[in-house]
Every structure is written in C-alpha cells, then in structure tokens.
Amino acid sequence: MGKHSSGKGGGSKSGGQRMSPTAASRVRSAGAKNPGSRTAESGFASRAQSAAAKGGGRQQGGR
To answer: Comparing C-alpha atoms, which of 63, 60, 29 is closest to residue 44?
Structure first.
C-alpha cells in the first residue's frame, strides 16, 4: 500500500479537474481549521490558491 490511501488525488499534474477559486478557498479554510494537518503543513493551500489565480477554475460542464 502507498502513502496515500484515499481514492482521490494521486499527485498527477495532468488531467483531472482544475482548481477553482471556491475549491482553493475550501482548501485554505481546512488548513486554517487544523494547522497540524497534512494539508496545512504541505503548503498545498498556497499552491491551490496560485492555481486558481492562473485561471484554471472553470465550471464543470463548461467544455
């Protein structure tokens, strides 16, 4: 078994859904609520915010 046991994620940089500003906000909020969490300590919140700011957040179904 690998490091991560959840069914989501996987660390792939290609494919999948793009980061929306709303999703980035949820990530940041989750890290703030639990500063000792893996999300908070990994710096993922700032990467999510950056990805959302680059315009990657389109609504689902907007093909």
So the answer is: 29
- Is the confidence at residue 5, as pLDDT, over 50? no
2 or 51: which leads in pLDDT: 51
Question: Which residues are CB-neighbours of 51 under 8 A, at least 6 positions away?
Answer: 18, 19, 24, 57
Q: How many Cβ atoms sit within 10 Å of the Cβ of residue 27?
A: 20
How far is the C-alpha of 5 from the C-alpha of 25, rounded, in Å?
24
Dihedral sign (CA 9, 12, 13, 14): negative
pLDDT tens digits, residue range 7-38? 455 454 555 788 999 999 999 999 999 999 99
